[in-house]
Amino acid sequence: MKKLNTRNLFLIAFTLFSMFFGAGNLIFPPFLGYEAGLNAVPAFLGFAATAVAFPILGVAATAKAGGVDALCEKVHPKFGFFFSVAVYLCIGPMLAIPRTAGTSYSMFSFITRYIPEGNIFGMDSQIFARIIFSLVFFTAAGWIAKSPEKLRELLGKIMSPILITLIIIMFGAAIMHIGLPVYEPSELYKNGAFFEGFLQGYQTMDTMAALVFGIIIAMNLKDMGIDDGNDIARETIRSGVMAGILILIIYGMITFCGVISGSLIEGATNGTDILTALCLEFFGPAGAVLLAAIFFIACFNVCIGLICSCAEFFSMKFSFFSFDRWRIILTIWSFLISIAGLDTIISISVPILSIIYPVAMVIIFMNLVPIAIFKKPVVQRIAVALSLLCGIISL
Q1: What angle do CA 83, 88, 90 make, to 5 degrees?
Q2: How far apart are the C-alpha atoms of 243 and 318, rounded to whole Å?
Q3: Percent of the chain at pLDDT above 70?
Q4: What is d(CA 75, CA 81) in angstroms, rounded to the nearest whole number?
Q5: How far apart are CA 40 and CA 196, in angstroms?
Q6: Rg of the chain's alpha carbons, rounded to an integer?
Q7: How confident is the model over 14-73, as pLDDT tens digits?
Q8: Is the pLDDT of residue 288 over 70?
Q9: N or C terminus: fewer CB in 10 A for the chain?
Q10: What is the pLDDT of residue 345?
Q11: Could you tell me which of 237, 238, 250 has the C-alpha nearest to residue 47?
Q12: What global pTM score does this model have?
């Protein structure tokens, strides 16, 4: 039996954290705190269930089963194939990867607002600037994604510590302003705050991300000398738990920032507005730079991890293209989708996630609970059908 030493275990946990913690993880917690106000605690607990607990359970379930296909095989082998493809498409080139560039760009408004109005090559100057940003963003991410087995060197050792440090600086400033009043919850959070927070956790996409990141973690573990399947599963679960604890702490910090922001901003429509107002209040003009750095690093990390994971998956399932060919295809496709803009991507993601997310949670739950009846194919099929129906009804 081979185990990671403490240093390497933290390194893999930081790598997994950096792949999880991206656009949605920054946008949604502060807005939840802003909207929930005095009911922030139950709302946060609901959010943590779907944005932290289930993702870590997903890491554990996928590691034990040996992949998404194996996780779903009791429902039906063909369902396992089609569901895993749907998950990878949603968490990859159709929604999550393009969202990383859109979110990053939105945080550079302190620069882009100075772009003069007009047309460049027959295109609105702001749209042209967003396209150039996305082009550079995806070119860099796609190039780094060439070596997925080495991601721990960049994400675990460098990018994650920088990101965590920047978030702690922002939270420290919020603590110093702890005297700011907390307001009454909005209509959504007055009754059933826990359930509303539970639903908001869908938006992070982390439960589905948990089903796909195992491929990259396994590749890094093998590169570190851990070859046995059982050892890989165990070390993946250990690092997943550590990453989950870290994510929970960071979520708490950002949600607290949202809770105290009511007196500084009115009519906020998303977490970006809230964090921008807070950083400008805390640090003045330098706050915009701090926040842009936080968003850029977080989104860039996730983009790299998702390109690697999706390219590896599609190269295994559709082997007519190699990993490198799929990496290039996914990068170009994600760039094209990102041109639609952040608001468009989020509006499309809500109904799709509402349908797929409950199915993913049910599959994870039934594979982890040690009750024999839950392992029966007929029971799993009924549970999946009911969760799919619930997702459709919730639209």
Answers
A1: 95
A2: 31
A3: 96
A4: 11
A5: 11
A6: 21
A7: 988 988 887 678 888 999 999 998 899 999 999 999 889 888 888 888 887 777 777 888
A8: yes
A9: N
A10: 67
A11: 250
A12: 0.83
Query: Which tokens belong to 44?
Result: 């946060």
The 3 state secondary structure assigned to the chain is CCCCCHHHHHHHHHHHHHHHCCHHHHHHHHHHHHHHHHHHHHHHHHHHHHHHHHHHHHHHHHHHHCCHHHHHCCCCHHHHHHHHHHHHHHHHHHCHHHHHHHHHHHCCHHHHCCCCCCEECCEEHHHHHHHHHHHHHHHHHHHHCCCHHHHHHHHHHHHHHHHHHHHHHHHHHHHHCCCCCCCCCCHHHHCCHHHHHHHHHHHHCHHHHHHHHHHHHHHHHHHCCCCCHHHHHHHHHHHHHHHHHHHHHHHHHHHHHHHHHHHCCCCCCCHHHHHHHHHHHHHCHHHHHHHHHHHHHHHHHHHHHHHHHHHHHHHHHCCCCCHHHHHHHHHHHHHHHHCCCHHHHHHHHHHHHHHHHHHHHHHHHHHHCCCHHHHCHHHHHHHHHHHHHHHHHCC
pLDDT value, residue 117:
81
Q: Output the six-digit token pair for 140.
A: 């860099």
